[in-house]
């Protein structure tokens, strides 16, 4: 096994905590959960509503994927965290699936949580394979 590499992607949003955007070991790439923050201005308010926040999170994840030379085609597994699970699950799914269809969807877990950084409604992380 090679030692892991840790990557910060210049085009990706400023981290909301101390972490790398991605960590890679033996071709497996673990993307840190992204928030719906603006990649150009971390001080901007978060988008309104779970659909807009899901789009921003997915777009932020794509920035990280591209920063490590990957795309959505490399994504194997996804974890989604929602603060308002019952209210937002269907709306989040509508946006989420639009990023992957018509291709087969990655494995996925979706979890209801009591809170997220920056009072976000959604956070998503990826595991990808090079």
TrEMBL record:
Pfam families the record matches: Ribonuc_L-PSP
Domain of life: Bacteria
InterPro entries to which the protein is assigned, alphabetical: RidA, RutC-like_sf, YjgF/YER057c/UK114
MF term (GO), any: deaminase activity
Gene Ontology CC: cytosol
Gene3D superfamilies on file: RutC-like (3.30.1330.40)
Family in the record: Belongs to the RutC family.
Name of the protein described by the UniProt record: Endoribonuclease L-PSP
Natural source organism: Caballeronia sordidicola (Burkholderia sordidicola)
């Amino acid at each position: 096994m090679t030692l892991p590499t840790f990557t910060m992607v210049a085009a990706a949003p400023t981290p909301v905590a101390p972490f790398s955007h991605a960590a890679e070991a033996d071709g497996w790439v673990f993307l840190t959960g992204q928030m719906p923050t603006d990649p150009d201005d971390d001080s901007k308010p978060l988008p309104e509503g779970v659909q807009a926040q899901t789009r921003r999170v997915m777009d932020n994840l794509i920035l990280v994927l591209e920063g490590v030379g990957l795309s959505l085609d490399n994504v194997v597994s996804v974890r989604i965290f929602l603060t308002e699970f019952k209210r937002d699950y269907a709306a989040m799914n509508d946006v989420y699936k639009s990023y992957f269809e018509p291709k087969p969807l990655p494995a996925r877990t979706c979890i209801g949580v009591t809170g997220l950084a920056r009072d976000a409604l959604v956070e998503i992380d990826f595991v990808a394979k090079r």
